[in-house]
Write the structure tokens for this entry.
Amino acid sequence: MENQDKNEVLSRAVKAGKRTYFFDVKKSRNEELYLTITESKRKTDPDTGNFTYEKHKIFLYKEDFEKFKNALSGVIDFIEFGEEPAEEFFDSESFGKESGSDEINDISFDDIDLAL
């Protein structure tokens, strides 16, 4: 099969119910390989009966593979077996922590109303 995109190295699709997941390995300008994961879901317009596709794409670079793989495996294990994933798989600074602070922000909606 001929690649439509000259930087595409490998492409595979997984059909899962109403969704299709595409795993595309591509090559950057500096010859580094990276992965794009695209979720595509077919939608039907009830008025016209025409189909459209809703797509969401993730770009995953080589330096992030190990963290992504560990985190994904951890949350899948949690869903399947109830085993809480190890915290070292996640970057807690990205979620609710101020830069340079070890305390998580605890803001209530009442506090937001007072600030307005």
Observations:
- The domain at 8-99 is CATH 3.10.450.700 (Nuclear Transport Factor 2; Chain: A,).
